[in-house]
Specification:
The protein is of the alpha+beta class. It has one domain: Alpha-Beta Complex (Ribosomal Protein L22, Chain A), CATH 3.90.470.10. Helix content is 41%, strand content 29%. Strand 3 and strand 4 form a beta hairpin. The relative contact order is 0.22.
Length: 134
């Protein structure tokens, strides 16, 4: 690896030390359904977001709630203290498409219709509210 690439990699690694998050991979639901849930909590205070997810009636909300709890636990682990109410907020959250399972369904007159079973990856980052002003 050349000097320029190594310096860029070190800069990225240093920036990542201040990011606290979690990633959920290969969730067997469509990215569109997951984005509906994720959009509800983007930029919201973390414990308020947990309440929103707990009382949402969507199946994807259960998985995002568990992921948010994991991100909060990661923040607590790296900072060696418990998070207080009003201290953390959901900084970034996004949903990417994961590989699709492609299946065939029998159709009339000897044809076959394609079924695409979609899945997604969810990434969430939390940060302290006073870092928001920087």
């Amino acid at each position: 690896m050349g000097l320029r690439k190594r310096q860029a990699a070190d800069a990225i690694k240093a920036a990542r030390k201040n990011e606290f998050g979690a990633r959920l991979r290969n969730v067997p639901s469509s990215p569109r359904k997951m984005r509906l849930v994720v959009d509800m909590i983007r930029g919201v205070e973390a414990f308020k977001a947990l309440g929103i997810l707990k009382f949402s009636n969507k199946e994807a909300a259960r998985k995002v709630e568990k992921l948010l709890r994991s991100a909060i636990a990661n923040w607590e682990q790296k900072n060696e203290r418990k998070a207080e109410a009003g201290e953390l907020y959901v900084k970034t959250v996004f949903v990417d498409a994961a590989p699709m399972l492609k299946r065939m369904r029998p159709a009339p007159q000897g044809r076959g219709y394609r079924i695409r079973k979609r899945s997604n990856h969810v990434t969430i980052f939390v940060d302290t509210i006073n870092n928001n002003n920087d």
